[in-house]
Amino acid sequence: MDLMGPSLESLFEMCDKSFSLRTVSILGLQLLRRLKFIHSKGILHRDIKPDNIVMGVDGDENKVYLIDFGLSKRFMVGGKHGKSSCSNDFLLLFVIYFVSTTDNLTCVDIEQSVRSDLEALGYVLLYLMTGMLPWYGLSVEKLMKNKEQLGDDVDTMCKGAPAALAEYFAYLFELDFGPKPVYRKLSQYVAQMASKDEKNEQQHEFEWLVCFNSSFSLILFLCSTFGAERLRNNPLINILMKC
Questions:
Q1: For residues 31-60, b (16+ Cβ closer than 10 Å) or e, as one string?
Q2: Run of H or E including 208
Q3: Model pLDDT for residues 74-116, shown as the tens digit of each residue
Q4: pLDDT (tens digit per residue) in 54-72
Q5: Which of 2, 16, 47, 68 is catalytic?
Q6: Is 155 a residue of the active site?
Q7: Any idea what the Cα angle at residue 54 is, between residues 219 and 127, rounded to 5°?
Q8: Between the N and C ends of the chain, which has fewer C-beta atoms within 10 Å?
């Protein structure tokens, strides 16, 4: 596997958990394209979270990638939507903060669909916009109950985020198990999360690229090797960020 840049979680921490809406929108649009491609191959990722989303290097610093397909499963069988159920490895390893409300952690026979990945992506976007999720700190049982209750009230769940994110979730929650989502419609919601007068995807510079300037490549390597949290208060990093 080629060396990749740091994860979104690392960069989010390095930027004091503050991304612009344009940054989150552009990341979301790229991730929707990645998921559309993965799903077109009949695969569910099943572990969408900021730690599994990384940036490119060597000229691809503006490209986002999905990694860690250890929990992925095939859901297309003979061109039809087959059964992809949760298993013990899923229950033990999945980060529950970003798990879909349809993926009941107490049931191993729950069927999953592409909605699970897309819903998890929505939680990632909510986290990157607000710096937290409404159910942080709750036990597993209370967390899932809280998410199910908030799922009926997307406006409350998305408090502090653009209205377009609530529309994104509302569309997903109306989907049945089988129907294929309209990715174009989801992309429209994600695009609407940023102001129209902001720079487009080709012109936009991510916060960490602007902040780190010419020292970015070195910081990428250090973050990937040692982790952003360990380096956050490191004097060397502070010096590089001022270069």
A1: bbebbbebbeebbbbbbbbbebbbbbbeee
A2: helix 207-212
A3: 886 555 555 555 544 444 334 566 766 555 444 444 567 898 8
A4: 998 888 888 999 999 988 8
A5: 47
A6: no
A7: 105
A8: N
